[in-house]
Structure formats: structure tokens, C-alpha cells
Design a protein that fits this description.
By secondary structure, this protein is an all-alpha fold. It contains 14 helices and 2 strands; from the N terminus they run H-H-H-H-H-H-H-H-E-H-H-E-H-H-H-H. The protein has helices at about 1-25, 55-70, 70-85, 115-130, 135-150, 170-175, 185-195, 200-205, 220-225, 240-245, 270-275, 285-290, 295-305, 310-325; strands at about 215, 255-260. The chain binds protoporphyrin IX containing FE.
């Protein structure tokens, strides 16, 4: 009798623990710093009851913003990358300089480069109006990135939601974790590996450069001094070299821009990879995917150039993995009211 009572008590305690762990999934700092399983506690249905119209709201603001300026779609997609690679997808990239916050916006890869904050503000304001204090800024970035991809002709993916917003930013980590455009293939692979992402993710996600633009300063080295020898990058196709040199003089013009995929700069397609096969990738980090002497990586570039469907399939898997990097969930983090400041500053 006593032993059956003890067994019953044990089952009761175990089931209470199990229920509690489902209701409040723990966020283990560093326990799964990658986009891989175990599942990070996100769900595509997260706002199904509390804000079923969230995606519709995001897309309607996006449509207006893209009609005004096509490039904004690319800028918003890039925001997800720059958010997720720095302490996880927690909207840390949106925080402005403030007491205790050193903004990531001033990190080298972001300064005078990253954009789209006003559109995020507009989306967030519309979400707050419809569903106050419900949709996080981190999820707003993820929804904006997906919407921008789809509205540019790219693939749709089921987006796990439920990320919370950080109360901190980390400018130093932004400088450390965001890859520079002149990186070698070996370094690029390492940058991705540090986030738990592999070669397929590197090649597929680089395909985001099928839309948007880069400033001369991001690829100038290829035109004038690729190997500290005052010579252009040998792998850069000659016609493209002349076009780029006419826009980006040796001195000055650093903020002039050129499309990353000049064949179809506003269309999310696989032309980016086709250009790379012809030596017409814009950034060093684009071209080395082909010339970097890694057969697996080069093979993926060729496959995506030949098969848009395969590119889209891999892209969807990879961007989902990237979007799952170390989210704050449950009671970790908060839902910022204003994406630019942590809540205590506005209460
Ligand atoms: C593989 C390593 C990567 C490097 C080295 C890199 C670097 C860059 C650089 C230097 C620019 C131009 C910035 C400027 O000149 O102001 C840029 C633009 C862009 N990047 Fe990347 N990037 C990488 C991966 C990614 C990933 C993973 C994504 C998205 C998932 C992404 C999305 C974009 C987009 C959409 C733009 C255009 C933004 C605009 O027009 O505003 N990039 N990237």
C-alpha cells in the first residue's frame, strides 16, 4: 500500500514537472546556440489566438514601403541576418544608444550601411495598435524578412514565432560575428560554423544577395588592390570591372552603390549564382564561393545556378535555421513597446 502511494506521488511529481516544462520552456544561454534541434520553443501558431492578423499587418506595411522604394525589401532581409548573428534573433540590432546600451548600429558592418529601421517602427506601431504588447520586435524582424522575400518573388516559409526581445545590445559582438565582405572562403565557413550553420547554409543564404545593393567601399579592394599589389582581383570579369571602376573611383565615391545582382536586382531569383559562375559576383565573399577551391561549396553554387527550385528549397531550410539561433523564449527577455529602447526607459 505504502509503495503504491509512493509510486503515485512520484508519477504526480513527474507529470507536474513535465507540464511546467512545457508551459515555461527554459532558455538555456548557450545550451543550443545554433539553429539546430532541439527545438528552441518557437511555433508558427504562436500568435494564432493573440494576434491572428499579425502577418497581414506586416505585409500591408511592407507593400507600401516597397512601392516607395524597392530596395527596402533587401534591407529588411539583411536586418534578420545582422540580428541573428549577434547574440541570437532577439532584436538587439534595433536598440539605439541609450543608458547602458551601446548600439550595434555603430558596429563596423552596420554603420552607414544597415537600414530599414523606420519601416520596422511603422510595422511595430501598426502591430501595437491592433494587438498591444503582443508581437515582439524580434518576430517583427523575422516577419518583415519573410514578407520582403516573398514580395520580391522569393520563397515562402513556415516561420516559427515566439521570440522575445533582448534588454541588451552588443556592439563588440557585432564587430566579431558579422563577416566582412573581403573574407576568404575559409573565414566565411568559420563565421557560419560559429553559429551552428554549415556550408549549405552559407551558400544558400548568400543567395540573399540576389536583391539589394552594396556601397563601393564594400568591394573597392577588388578593383584596385586585391592582394596588396595595386592590382584588381583576377577573378573579376573584365566588363564588370570597367563598369564598377567607372562608379567607384580609386579615391572618393565610397557611398556610391551598385546592385549585388545586376541582372535582376529587385527580383529574388537564382541569377546571383549564374553571375558568380561568370566571374560577375560583386563582393569578394560572393565570388569566393566559386573560386575558393572548396568542391562542395562550388558544387552548390553550380547546382543553385542550374536549379532555382533547389535553391529555394535549401534557402527555406537555411533561413529557418538562421531564424532559430538562440531565441529568448518564455520569461526570458521582454516584448518591447518601442523597438529602439528597452521597456524600462519608456515606462
Ligand atoms: C556570407 C557572408 C556575408 C557577407 C560577407 C555579407 C556582406 C554584405 C555587404 C558588405 C553588403 C553591402 C553593405 C554595404 O555596402 O553597405 C551586404 C548586403 C546585403 N546582404 Fe549580405 N553578407 C553576407 C551574408 C548575408 C546573409 C546571410 C544575408 C541574409 C540572410 C544577407 C543579406 C544581404 C542583403 C539583402 C543585402 C542588401 C541590403 C541592402 O540593399 O540594403 N547577406 N552584405
Amino acid at each position: 500500500m505504502a509503495s503504491s502511494k509512493m509510486a503515485f506521488a512520484a508519477i504526480l511529481i513527474a507529470s507536474l514537472f513535465f507540464t511546467a516544462s512545457l508551459a515555461f520552456p527554459a532558455h538555456h544561454e548557450g545550451a543550443y546556440p545554433t539553429g539546430q534541434s532541439p527545438k528552441p520553443g518557437l511555433s508558427p501558431d504562436y500568435y494564432k489566438v493573440t494576434c491572428p492578423q499579425a502577418d497581414e499587418i506586416v505585409v500591408s506595411v511592407l507593400k507600401k514601403a516597397i512601392a516607395k522604394e524597392q530596395r527596402i525589401a533587401a534591407s529588411l532581409l539583411r536586418l534578420l541576418f545582422h540580428d541573428c548573428f549577434v547574440q541570437g534573433c532577439d532584436a538587439s540590432v534595433l536598440l539605439d544608444d541609450n543608458d547602458g546600451v551601446v548600439s550595434e548600429k555603430n558596429a563596423i558592418p552596420n554603420k552607414n550601411s544597415i537600414r530599414g529601421f523606420e519601416v520596422i517602427d511603422e510595422i511595430k506601431a501598426a502591430l501595437e495598435e491592433a494587438c498591444p504588447h503582443t508581437v515582439s520586435c524580434a518576430d517583427t524582424i523575422a516577419l518583415a524578412a519573410r514578407g520582403s522575400t516573398v514580395l520580391s518573388g522569393g520563397p515562402y516559409w513556415e516561420l516559427p514565432l515566439g521570440r522575445k526581445d533582448s534588454k541588451t545590445a552588443n556592439m563588440k559582438l557585432a564587430n566579431k560575428n558579422l563577416p566582412p565582405p573581403n573574407a576568404t572562403l575559409h573565414r566565411l565557413i568559420n563565421f557560419f560554423q560559429r553559429q551552428g550553420l554549415g556550408k549549405v547554409d552559407l551558400v544558400a543564404l548568400s543567395g540573399s544577395h540576389t536583391i539589394g545593393a552594396a556601397r563601393c567601399v564594400s568591394f573597392k579592394q577588388r578593383l584596385y588592390n586585391q592582394h596588396r599589389d595595386n592590382k584588381p582581383d583576377r577573378t573579376l570579369e573584365k566588363t564588370l570591372y570597367h563598369t564598377l571602376a567607372s562608379v567607384c573611383p580609386r579615391t572618393g565615391g565610397d557611398n556610391n552603390i551598385r546592385p549585388l545582382d545586376f541582372a535582376s536586382p529587385a527580383k529574388f531569383d537564382n541569377a546571383y549564382y549564374q553571375l558568380i559562375l561568370e566571374g560577375r559576383g560583386l563582393l569578394n565573399s560572393d565570388q569566393v564561393l566559386w573560386t575558393g577551391s572548396d568542391p562542395e561549396v562550388a558544387g552548390l553554387v553550380r547546382s543553385y545556378a542550374e536549379n532555382k527550385h533547389l535553391f529555394f528549397q535549401h534557402y527555406v531550410d537555411s533561413i529557418t535555421r538562421m531564424g532559430n539561433i538562440s531565441p529568448l523564449t518564455g520569461y526570458s527577455g521582454e516584448i518591447r513597446k518601442n523597438c529602439r529602447v528597452v521597456n524600462k526607459h519608456i515606462q
